[in-house]
Structures are given as C-alpha cells and as structure tokens.
Design a protein that fits this description.
- The protein is of the alpha/beta class.
- The N and C termini lie far apart (59 Å).
- The chain is built from ten helices and nine strands.
- The strands form two sheets. A six-stranded parallel β-sheet has the order 3-2-1-4-5-6, sandwiched between helices. It has a three-stranded antiparallel β-sheet with strand order 7-9-8.
- It is elongated.
C-alpha cells in the first residue's frame, strides 16, 4: 500500500502535548498516509487547553470532552484508550498516531501492534523510554519541524550529538551496524534506503531525535562507516580495515 493510501487515526492527549506543534505533526503524518480520523482528548473547561481550542476547527480535529472525575487523575487517558480500541475493531485502519508524553499509553500501543497496525508516536523529550520503544516510529516534538522553523533548527543544531558520543551508545551502534550488515549487497555496500527501512522494521528509531535531519548525516558523523554517492543513490558500508600496513 502506498503511504498516501494508508488510513491513520490521530489521537491527541491534549493535556500532555503542545498545541503549537499541531501543524508539524500533521505534516509528518502526511508522509505516512491520511489522518482520516482526528480527535483530541481533554477537559475543555480547563483554561490550560486554550491553545488547543484555538486550532481544533482549522485542522478538522474533533474535541472529545472528558471531565476530571477525580483530582490528580486524568480521565482523558482512559477515554482515549477506549476510543482507540473501538476504532481498532470497527474501522479499517492501517495505523495510529498517538500524541502524548505519558507512559500510560504503552500497553495500548503494544496491543495495536499485535493487530498488525503501525503506531507513530509524538511526544516531548521527557517522554518515558517504554513509550518511545513501543512505537513503530517515535519523534520528539522539539525536533520534528526543525526544517521548517529557523529558530527550531538553531536549537536542534545546538543539541546535535557529536559522532564521538554516538559511538559510545552501544545499543545505537549495534542497531546501525546490524542494519548495514543485513542489507549489504555482494560488493559490500548497502543502500541507505534499505538500511533505513531495516532499522524502522526493527526498532523505534529516528535520526532527528539525535539532531540529524537525515540518516546519512548521522552515518557521516560516525567515522566507522564509509559513504558513497552515485547519482541520487546513497550507499553505506562498514569502514574497511587497512591491511596495507607493512609488517615490521
């Protein structure tokens, strides 16, 4: 199925997501398909949600009212989860997009994945790791519109992790090396597109979360890989050891 044909349900935990990011979120979802269902959950009598109120109608997002029955408890979370399960079994969807920084949605995500649908997660950098790891793809809201907003771009550049720091991340390096090895052709080179697809199938990974707009930039920052460009094709391989040194 082509991305433009994929039907996605966008569910927003308005209590735990910034309204200012909605355009960037919708633009990102458009890369994967059409957000045919758009809902935002919260107690709309709460003045803290005023920012969301102002952008709901212009983005065709349906507000779902949920009163706070108990102080300190977010009833909107439960409403979102119930709706998600209802949509999972009553609608023909290809994926869900969940916007929140709340770890409570992790079991929901794993349940959706069990049914063979993808889950695109959006949250701030404070989002707990279990939520991030559960998603098919997770994007930090601080970085997703860095290519659109010059100010955001400056911030993203300032937090870009250098190659030295990336190499110290054992889990990341194993992921990258494993993807390159698994997709390499007879000549030892791997298409960067195939590498990226392999990584996305294996883990919740996005180079932008590390401050790199493109995966190629991340590979270039790590001096353990070679990059080759032919026309519009970018290839990568593990750096070859130099065996030409003379023996002493």
């Amino acid at each position: 199925m082509q991305p433009s044909e994929s039907k996605i349900a966008l569910l927003i935990d308005a209590d735990n997501a910034p309204a200012l990011k909605i355009n960037a979120i919708l633009s990102e979802i458009a890369k994967y398909g059409v957000a045919s269902i758009r809902r935002a959950y919260g107690n709309w009598k709460n003045p803290t949600l005023k920012g969301w109120e102002d952008c709901l109608h212009e983005n065709a997002i349906r507000p779902v009212q949920q009163f706070d029955y108990t102080k300190g408890k977010n009833a909107a979370d439960a409403a979102l989860i119930i709706d998600a399960m209802d949509l999972l079994y009553t609608q023909k969807l290809d994926a869900f997009a969940i916007v929140s920084s709340d770890c409570d949605f992790t079991p929901l995500i794993t349940r959706i994945l069990t049914n063979g649908l993808r889950v695109y997660g959006f949250g701030e950098k404070k989002t707990p790791l279990p939520f991030i790891k559960a998603c098919s793809v997770f994007l930090h809201l601080e970085t997703i519109d860095q290519t659109v907003d010059p100010e955001i771009s400056k911030v993203a550049a300032s937090v870009k992790k250098p190659g030295k720091e990336l190499k110290q991340d054992t889990q990341l390096m194993n992921l990258l090396r494993g993807a390159v090895s698994s997709t390499q052709h007879d000549d030892g080179w791997s298409s960067l597109g195939e590498v990226g697809a392999h990584i996305r199938n294996q883990a919740s990974f996005e180079s932008r979360n590390y401050g790199y707009a493109k995966l190629s930039g991340m590979f270039e920052a790590i001096d353990l890989f070679e990059i080759q460009r032919k026309n519009n094709l970018v290839c990568v391989r593990n750096k070859q050891k130099d065996n030409t040194a003379q023996k002493t």
